[in-house]
Amino acid sequence: MRSLLLALFLVIAFHRGEAAVSCNSVVGDLYPCLSYVVQGGNVPANCCNGIRTLNSQAQTPVDRQGVCRCIKNAIGGVSFSSNNLNNAQSLPAKCGVNLPYSISPSTNCDSIN
């Protein structure tokens, strides 16, 4: 039940962002990662595919800032443990993707180039 509530809140929080890459796209690309963020374990292959897709779509600073804001809004809008945050922060490296920002509630999205 908690996972379902977290998932629903993430969808709502992701929907609030503004960028050429829509927050709906961010939701679709990152939704497969939710089980790993909540429970840990193995990163689902479709999660890494989503992260790679999202990274390739966000080519401009405005797009990257928008994606960052969507993710940051989602993190800031839910209750999470340090394990959840650590799992989320580890995803790009586990998927072999170098994001220009950290998945963290303290990330300054406006400084991303």
TrEMBL record:
Plant non-specific lipid-transfer proteins transfer phospholipids as well as galactolipids across membranes. May play a role in wax or cutin deposition in the cell walls of expanding epidermal cells and certain secretory tissues. This is Non-specific lipid-transfer protein. SMART domains: AAI. It comes from Brassica rapa subsp. trilocularis. Keywords: Lipid-binding, Signal, Transport. Residues 1-19 form the signal peptide. The keyword Magnesium does not apply. PANTHER family: NON-SPECIFIC LIPID-TRANSFER PROTEIN 2-RELATED. Pfam families: Tryp_alpha_amyl. The gene is A05p051850.1_BraROA. Gene3D superfamilies: Plant lipid-transfer and hydrophobic proteins. Belongs to the plant LTP family. Residues 23-109 form the Bifunctional inhibitor/plant lipid transfer protein/seed storage helical domain.
